[in-house]
Amino acid sequence: MRALGSALEVRYGHGHYGLEDDQRSVGYDDYGMGPPPMHPGGYGTMPGLGRGPAAMDRRRLRSCEDTLDGDVVGVDPYAWGVPMTMERGSMASLDSTLRKGPPGTWRQPELPEVIAMLNYRLDPVKINAAAFLQHLTFKNDKVKSEVRRLKGIPSLVSLLDHPTKDVHHSACGALKNISFGRDQENKIAIKNCDGVPALVRLLRKTHDQDLTDTITGTLWNLSSHDSVKMEIVDHALHALADEVVVPHSGWERASHGGEESCKPRHLEWETALTNTAGCLRNVSSERSEARRKLRECTGLVDSLMYVVQSQINRKDVDNKLVENCVCLLRNLSYHVHREVPGCERYAETAPVNQGPVPANKGGCFGSRKGKGKKDGDDGSGDVVDIPKRTTPAKGYELLYQPEVVRVYTSLLRESKNPSVLEAAAGAIQNLCAGRWTYGRYIRATVRLEKGLPMIAELLAHGNDRVVRAMSGALRNLSIDNRNCQLLGLHAVPHLVANLPGGQSQSGRTLSEETVVSVLSTLTEVLGNSVEAAKTLRTSQGIERLVLINKDGKRSEREVRGAGQVLQLVWAHKELRKPLEKDGWKKTDFMVNLSATNGPSTRANGTYEDSTTPLLDRGEKRDMIPLNDLGPEAYSTLDQRERRHTLDETTDTLPRGVYGGRKGSLPLLDSYDG
To answer: Which positions does the entry assign to ARM repeats (predicted)?
Structure first.
């Protein structure tokens, strides 16, 4: 037991266990970002004792991935450390169990013995046993499974209701490590013994920052499993909002005229807020009922918006806190036009892409000067009639106010984090979906905020998912006739640059899902515009589209998309002679499905990160016909959810669909799962 006690010196500030959240949630290494910078709150799972000016908690000086194993190289992981003086009374009754040989010698405890000590009557034994389990389970999936098999998880959960604070730290730290990793059975085991309600009870009664960090980290780990998501929504949502997000975001203080010159409150609790936002980010992907409860949770959306805006003001938008908050806001924006209370008031029955194109209005891409100046591409700027609110927006209303566009365009301008860029564009894409009043306002506001050129330029980003998000946003933005006109003149070259072939891709290989998205956006942007078709021709777009159509190496979905665009170009009779002079024949503009490269192979759906666009891993998603569908038919919603919300659609393209443009493409929703 002395070996056990010395091993458990970690409980008293000897070492640091990194924040071991599920990699599907955290994803620090997805883009080579590294962990978020350390702050006074730390990322450790253990509190330290003996604090004071000369005894700073050593845990806070360690890196995020540092462990005690680095201090004891070559030592058996079940027994390590230097002997530590403990209360002899807590050891006497265990002497016969752990002592063998001559007096004064000790042996290392076996795992079943350690688990049995969790139920021992003396608190120091419970504390040390739980802390030792925390050490043993760190990045050791085999030990985690053994703890589960030996029924150690129910014992740890029961310790969360123990009256002693030190027991809470040790037990919760062990549960956080056990809940981390690919073995989903550990998460299910914690859920099945009412681990979530126990964590919530502890969260509500503690005021300790380190313990709050550990509780929220455990919930973040658990939230990556689908079967636990609604459990968290039903039992933990209001506690997370009331105890972490609202009080520690700084929103309440600011809304009551608090001092703005002091250190932002959310920075003092950054770890707990990051964990909580990550947890809610995951559960918001579960189903519409989960999103409804999150949107209607008092103060949640207000606090998230406040944190993001505060970080924008500080020009610090690439950390994990901002990423989780923006991804959560993106999820809450999904289907907002038909899921928020009273949404029927904002429905518009007329097709959203009808109406005259404003003439002589300034474009957000800048005016042309002198020779080559085009009508409709100069002037003083568009005027959009957006009624003023009589009362300030609050709660879920903040999600779709035109003012939120400035938040997302600021992130697109300032952030270098691919996940933040993807989420900001996805939120814009979601808000522009659907035939509703605020969707029309958002499309116009993005144009007025110079967001169109910003999004078009980000099509050159090196990350596949960022390119796809930008393409989807432009597709929904182009439903606005003025946006479509501007994008047809200025964004087509950026879209063409992402098609296979040519030399401008700088070695990038985009996924099939992204190429199909770009082709769909090109179809929407070209529409009936001969000027956009001319821009496509001068941008080497015809060469790339024909290559997709005929090289035999592309998927059926890509070939269909390319054929759709080629047919739109050939439909302009005034372009046929110039095209023939370029050496093209009519047959080049006909879809060639016989040249496809077999079944669809896509990267989307193979991502491990639970916050990527929703799709079951390895599950096939068919291309939805490009015409004759409603405005919400094309969605990246998880197939599990689609079975409950959308009719199944086939991968059959109607005959004659390429003969003319009978309607706009279905709107594309973006979803962060």
So the answer is: 151-188, 194-237, 450-483
Query: Alpha-carbon distance 396 to 388, whole Å?
Result: 18
- Tell me the average confidence (pLDDT) per consecutive run of 10 residues in the chain, 673 residues long: 46 33 36 36 36 37 32 37 35 43 68 94 94 94 95 96 94 96 93 97 95 97 95 97 94 63 67 96 93 96 95 94 97 92 79 45 49 40 74 90 96 96 97 90 94 96 95 95 93 94 66 95 92 93 91 87 93 92 89 59 33 32 31 33 29 31 43 51
Classify 68 as helix, strand or coil.
Answer: helix
Q: Is residue 592 within 8 Å of 638, Cβ to Cβ?
A: no
Contacts of 88 (CB under 8 A, 6+ apart): none
The burial class, CB within 10 Å (0-12 / 13-18 / 19+), for 61 is exposed
> How far apart, in Å, are the Cα atoms of 462 and each of 264, 317, 506, 510?
33, 19, 9, 9
β-bridge partners, 74: none
Q: Which residues pair with 347 in a beta bridge?
A: 436
Distance CA 190, CA 616 (A): 24
Cβ neighbours of residue 175 under 8 Å, at least 6 residues apart?
153, 156, 157, 160, 190, 195, 199, 218
Question: Cβ–Cβ contacts within 10 Å for residue 432, how many?
Answer: 32
Closest by Cα among 78, 69, 172 to 132: 78
Query: Is 0.90 surpassed by the pTM of this model?
Result: no
Note whether 569 and 586 are within 8 A (CB): no
Angle formed by the axes of helices 437-448 and 404-414, to 10°?
A: 40
Tokens of 233: 């929504």
Cα 90 from chain centroid (whole Å): 47
Torsion of Cα atoms, 280 then 334 then 301 then 19, to 10° = 20
Distance separating alpha carbons of residues 513 and 334, to the nearest angstrom: 19
Helix/strand/coil (H, E, C) string of 248-273? HHCHHHHHCCCCCCCCCHHHHCHHHH
DSSP 3-state helix, strand, coil percentages of the chain (rounded to 5)? 55, 0, 45
Cβ neighbours of 624 (radius 10 Å) = 18
Look up residue 616 and give its two tokens: 């079951």
Classify residue 658 by its DSSP letter: T
- Distance CA(14)–CA(613), nearest Å, equals 41
State CA 256 to chain mean position distance.
31
Residue that has been written with the tokens 């455990």 in this structure? 218
